[in-house]
Amino acid sequence: MTAETVPASHRRILSASLVGTAVEFYDFYIYATAAALVFPALFFPAEDPGVATLLSYASFSIAFFARPLGGIVFGHFGDRMGRKSTLVASLMLMGVSTVLIAFLPTYAMIGITAPILLSIMRFGQGFGLGGEWGGASLLAVENAPKGWYYRYGSFPPMGAPVGFIAANGFFLILGMILTDDQFRDWGWRIPFLASAVLVGVGLWVRLKITETPDFVEAQQKAPPPRVPIGELLRDHLRPTLAGTVGAVACFAMFYISTVFIIGYGTKTLGYDRETFLAVELVAILFMALGIVVACTWADKSKAGGSGVLRWGFVATMAAGLLMSALMIGGTLWSVFAWLALALFVMGLVYGPLGGWLPSLFPARVRYTGVSVTFNLAGIIGGGLTPLIAETLVKQGGIGLVGYYLAAAGILSTIGLAFLPKRVVD
Asked: How far is CA 180 from the centre of its chain?
C-alpha cells in the first residue's frame, strides 16, 4: 500500500484521529499561551510579577493532574463500550470547558472566585484530554495495515503541531490587530470562544466513523473487563511503568520549548511578543518534520519504535546541554536554532508514542493502558515543568533548565530498559 492507495474509509478514520487531537491541543495551547501572557495580571495579581507568573503556571499544571483521572474514566468506558462514543464524550468535555473560559470574570471583577473558576475549567480541560489522546491513537493504529503501524499512529501526535499553530497563530494575529490594552481587556477571550466552531467540526468527523476491528474482535473473544484499570495493574504493571517513564522526555521537552520558553523569551530575554510567537510558529514545523521522520523510520527499521525513541532520548540530552549557549538575548537566530532543534527532537520522542504505547497492551485493556501511561508521564514530565523551569531560572539561570531537560532524557532511556522487545517492534 502507498499513501495514494489508502482506502477512503481509512482516510476518514485518520482525519478523525487528527482533527480531534488538533482541536484538543488547540484548546490546551490557548490556555498555555494565555497563562504565559495575560493570566498572571488578570487572574493572579501580585506585587511581584514573578509570583503572579508562578501562580498562573500552577493553574496550568492542574490539567496534568486531572488527565490521569480522565484517562482512567474514559479508558474504562473505551475498553468496555468502544472507542468511538468515548472519543466523542472526551471532545465535548474539553470543548465546553474551553469555551466557558471565554466568559469568566477576572480577579478585578469578582476577586478570589475568578482564579477558582478558572482552575475548575482547567480541570475540565485536563479531564477531557485524559481520554482523548489514547482513544485517538487506538482509532488510528487499530485500523493500520501491515507495515504502516507507526505511520498511522503518527496522526494523533501530528495534532499537536497543528493545534499549536492554530492557537499561537490566533494569538499572533490578535496581537497584530489589537492594542495591548484591547488584547488584555477582551481580545484574549476570542480564541477560547472560537473553540466552539472547532469542536463542532471534530464531532461531525467523529460521528461518521465506525468501531475499530481490534475492539470488535476483543469483544467477540471474551466479555470486556469489569474494571479495566484493575486488570491493567494486576496483569500489565511492567509495561505500564515502562510506558509511563518512557514518555516523560516527550512532555518535558515540549512544555519547556513552548509554554515556559514564551514567558522566558518575552520577559527575561526581552523579545517582542509577536516576534517571539512568530519564531515559535516557524520552529513548530520542525516538530511536524520530526514526527514524520520518526514514524517512517520506525515502520521501516528493524529497531522499530523503541529504537527510534532511544535515539530521540539521546538527542533530548544534547538539546538540553545546548540550551544555555543558544537561548540568549539579542540573537534571535540563535534562539530559533535551539527551538527548531528542540522541537525536531520533540517529534522524534513524541511521534512513535502513537504506535509504541498501544503496542504494550492487549486490546481488552489498551484504551486504559495507553491513557494511564501517557497521562501519568504528563504529570511527571510536563505537569510542573513550566513552574520548575521558572524556579530554576531564578535560582541559577537557563543552564539549569537545560540540565533538567537532559535528566528527563536519561529517565526515559531507563524506562525503555524496563520492557523486553515487543512483537510490534
From this structure: 29
* Count of helix runs (H) and strand runs (E) in the chain: 22, 0
Query: Percent of the chain scored above 70 by pLDDT?
Result: 96
Find the range with the poorest average confidence among 4-8, 199-203, 366-370.
4-8
Residue 34 CA to residue 56 CA, distance in Å, equals 9
Quick one: average pLDDT of 236-264?
Answer: 90
182: Cβ contacts below 8 Å, ≥ 6 apart: none
Residue type, position 346, single letter: M
* Residue in the block written with cell 507568573: 53
> What's the grid cell of residue 60?
496550568
Cβ contact 291:161 at 8 Å = yes
How many C-alpha atoms does 294 have within 13 Å on its Cβ side? 35
Nearest to 263 by CA among 177, 391, 353, 170: 391
Q: Do 156 and 354 contact (CB within 8 A), yes or no?
A: yes
CB 75 within 8 A of CB 228: yes
CA distance 100 to 89: 17
Element (H, E) at 177: helix 155-177
Cα separation, 192 vs 23, in Å, equals 11
Q: What is the largest CA-CA distance in the chain?
A: 63
Residues 45 and 370: their CA atoms lie apart, in Å, by 38
Q: Please provide the distance, in angstroms rounded to a whole number, between the alpha carbons at the two ends of the chain.
A: 20
For 331, residues 6+ apart whose C-beta sits below 8 A from its C-beta are: none
What is the C-alpha separation between 239 and 246, in angstroms, rounded? 10
DSSP code per residue over 124-140: HHHHHHHHHHHHHHHHH
Residue 424's pLDDT band (cuts 50, 70, 90) = very low
Helices 304-326 & 332-350, crossing angle to 10 degrees?
160
Q: What is the mean pLDDT of residues 358-387?
A: 88
What is the C-alpha to C-alpha distance for residues 386 and 383, in angstroms, rounded to an integer?
Answer: 8
| φ, ψ at 363 (rounded to 5°) | -60, -30
CA distance 196 to 2: 35
Q: How far apart are CA 211 and CA 137, in angstroms?
A: 13
From CA 215, how far away is CA 339, in angstroms rounded? Answer: 39
pLDDT of the residue at 165: 86
Handedness of CA 412, 156, 192, 116 (dihedral sign): negative
Q: For the residues of 6-67, what is the DSSP string, one character each? A: --HHHHHHHHHHHHHHHHHHHHHHHHHHHHHHTHHHHHS--SSHHHHHHHHHHHHHHHHHHH
What pLDDT is stored for residue 423 in this prediction?
42
